[in-house]
Amino acid sequence: MRATPQLAVVLTLIATFFWGSNFQVTKFVLASLPPWTASVERFFFAVICIFIFLAWKEGIHGKVLKQNWRAFIILGAIGVAGFNGAFFVGLQSSSPVTAALIVSTTPISANILEAIIYRRIPEFIRMISMVISLLGVALVITNGQFILSGAVQVATGDMIIFAGSLGWAIYTVGTRIFVNNATPLETTSWTMFFGAVILTFIAIFVESPIPALSAGTLESHLACIYIGIGGSTFAYLFWNMGIAIRGAGKTAVFFNFVPIFALAIQVVMGEIPSLIQLIGIVITVVGVLVGQGSINKWLVFRRAIKD
Questions:
Q1: At residue 290, does pLDDT exceed 70?
Q2: Whose CA is closest to 164, among 107, 248, 231, 84?
Q3: How far is the C-alpha of 66 from the C-alpha of 186, rounded, in Å?
């Protein structure tokens, strides 16, 4: 299969769907498992799956690890252990809605970081699209309350999740800049491996993972398996493939779809969104389309037909 920009968009959307579903599935995980232990169990399954796929698809090459091991460890610590640890810990005192809103600021952080590194100003249309998308996301996940009340309460969990979102922005840009001669699959595998190792040490230090796992319910363990395989293995792989094909800035804007998919799953579970949330969904999609130039291409196509 040829690596085209269209394929990158599809893979990125699939990745964001898996992450969007994580918000709901995490509720089942944290019902009986502490956060760091849950993160370890999640990546236990993820690392096994990703390395089986790596061995089958490309083979495991020591040269890649030798050349990039420092970058893999740092990116694994920041983008895997940091982001996911912050997500699980933060959700103990932050609501999924607030967490989704905070995480949706990642594209802005990634584009700003990329602009600083490359010493260039992001394209104006890209900045406009991010603002539009972020506005739509805010409407969806807060049901318009941020406009009506204008008050924002910052909980400890909110700050932790924000720190995690900054870590994910660094990971998004860093996998493209600091990793050399490695495929997206190799980058995903090794950063995930080192992130899982770091998570294990943290869990041992702050929790008692073995007794906690023994006390966990079947539902929590099944939820961890789902998050590990879908929300980690495939999501990270598809995300890194999107970055490799289209770049960090263009890929990061799709992170705004994470809360949209989370809301869609709620609908499937019987929770119908309000009118203002539906408006937010439309605004978010329009913002992403503007950033990708799809609307301009459609207008040019219409003119060509009329002429």
A1: yes
A2: 84
A3: 12
Number of domains composing the chain: 1
Q: What is the mean pLDDT of the chain?
A: 82
For residue 301, what pLDDT is reported? 43
Predicted TM-score (pTM) of the model is 0.78
pLDDT in tens, 162-201: 889 889 889 988 988 899 999 888 998 999 999 999 999 9
pLDDT tens per residue across span 52-65:
989 988 899 899 99
